[in-house]
Design goal:
Number of helices: 4
Strand order of the largest sheet: 1-2
Low-confidence stretches: 1-8
CATH topology of one domain: Rossmann fold
CATH architecture of one domain: 3-Layer(aba) Sandwich
Radius of gyration: 16 Å
Largest sheet: 2 strands, parallel
Shape: elongated
Mean pLDDT: 86
Number of strands: 4
């Protein structure tokens, strides 16, 4: 290890048999890009609020909405994809 090098910030995976809360905490702390299936471009929808809050917390959001993608649109400044498969072909999720 290099002197004065920062320690790794990658969380340790939970042990086998860990509870759901522990597994979810691990995923949310180790993954910084999240696909949001059904993300609406309309600010009054719950999916928009949740995704906006996740962005504010430092996550990169990948919108998955076939209607928005067909129009070549974006949600919250990110390109929308028609399916998870399409998003996975172009993004690291």
């Amino acid at each position: 290890m290099t002197p004065n090098a920062p320690e790794s910030t990658v969380p340790t995976p939970p042990a086998d048999g860990a509870g759901l809360a522990e597994r979810m905490a691990y995923l949310l702390n180790s993954c910084r890009t999240i696909a949001v299936v059904g993300l609406s471009p309309h600010p009054h929808r719950a999916s928009f609020d949740v995704a906006r809050a996740m962005q504010a917390a430092g996550y990169r959001i990948i919108p998955v909405n076939p209607n928005v993608a067909a129009a070549g649109g974006e949600v919250l400044g990110e390109k929308a994809y028609a399916s998870l498969l399409d998003a996975a072909r172009h993004e690291t999720i």
